[in-house]
User: Fold this.
Amino acid sequence: MKAKEIIAVMEKHFPLSLQEEWDKCGLQIGQIETEVSKIMIALNADLQTIDEAIRNQCQMLITHHPFLLDPIVNIDQDDFMGAFIFKAIEHHIVVYSSHTALDNVAMNEWLMEALGVHDIERGEDGITRIATLNHPMTMDDFLDHVQTTYHLKHFQYAGHADMVRKVAICGGSGADFMSQFYGKADAYLTGDTKYRHAKNAVDHHMLLVDIHHHAENIMVRKLKELLEKEVNVEIIEGSSPDYYHYR
Assistant:
């Protein structure tokens, strides 16, 4: 199957027109006519991921976070960006990323569904989601549920809710979207929060849970399941470890 056929399937589900203005979704490196028999899906486009794709003899790497998000000043093979480009080209690996295009369609849907909810609705921004838990929980039970659901070694939270019934969510760096849910959600889940966001949660009587950016790793399994229904090639999951270590 050619890379361009796989890209067409990706863009049918996650059109590039849905990406944010600042984003760089789509083909990152490679030739769309490349014959692909094996795909690796990973959260991040980095040296560890491209090495893993090479070891597994993949011809295509699909990531969530784009390789080209940071500007390329030069292509120095001794620099991590240059090394990534050289490795992808030398091993004939097509690199494709779907970041905010996928976010706008599915990321927060997947994160929300994993919690066990009903009546999922989009937030005012179009990316976030709000829904009702199938089973209301005390705050402590909800925090345990969140940790188990997203396989979190550690997490942090601020604010309070006696009972959690309505939950809002934004994977990645979505703390600035929280204000639209004041008075509407008992809890807001996102990553990359700052101290001011914790204060806002306390002031507005909301539970804020920082599930870390790496919770978006859910896309690896979910995208694999989606593509396997429409793409006739082998698909494997990249390891995509968290960049942070916790102690």
Notes: The helical segments are 3-13, 47-55, 80-90, 100-115, 139-149, 195-203, 218-228. The mean pLDDT is 97. Residues 115 and 146 are 7 Å apart (CA to CA).
